Amino acid sequence: MNRLGIGIGFLLLVVASLIWYDGSFKGVTEPRETNVSDTVDSYFVNVKSHDFDETGELAVSLKSDHAQRFLGSTVIQLDQPHLKYFAQKIPWYGRSDAGQYDTDKETVTMQDNVVLYRADDQARLTTQILTYKKQQGLIETPDRVTITFPEGDTKGRGMTIHLDTELIELHNDVESYYDPAKAPQKNKP
């Protein structure tokens, strides 16, 4: 074999190794943090975190059975997180298969089979990724969203919930179905 053949073979091996190693074979959709070790720095069991509003009332509760943080990272990986938001009259609850808490940005991102619902069961939201941004008072997703309520459902791509007003904005491809027969009947005088 000549040197050119050996050089091309080595180059192909390096390229194949990089393609295999970059994570694309795992179906990773989120970019990985840079300068983060694969070594677990901390492992947590039965994690509970509570945030209180300025009056001392419980505003947000985050719970996860297991969590871990890697060396050099400000992100804590959560296993089956549960989020409760109490700041409005009717609390919102959320759960998902996985999640992350970014201690620097003060955000909680819930991923895979995300369900967000009101305590009165008047609205249920499903999507694949959802981010709670504490400082901005927002919940956002770029993904497809379905909101189900007793009278029907609404679907769209991309969403922002303004927590102070509970205003829900769907950004694109919005479709809605409403069945007036399922609407609560009001008593007439």
Automatic annotation (TrEMBL):
Matching InterPro entries: LipoPS_assembly_LptC-rel, LPS_export_LptC, LptC
Pfam families named in the record: LptC (PF06835)
Record carries keyword Iron: no
Keyword field: Cell inner membrane, Cell membrane, Membrane, Transmembrane, Transmembrane helix
Gene Ontology molecular function: glycolipid transfer activity; lipopolysaccharide transmembrane transporter activity
Gene3D superfamilies xref list: Lipopolysaccharide (LPS) transport protein A like domain (2.60.450.10)
One cellular-component annotation, GO: outer membrane-bounded periplasmic space
Superkingdom classification of source: Bacteria
NCBIfam families according to UniProt: LptC_YrbK
Protein name, UniProt field: Lipopolysaccharide export system protein LptC
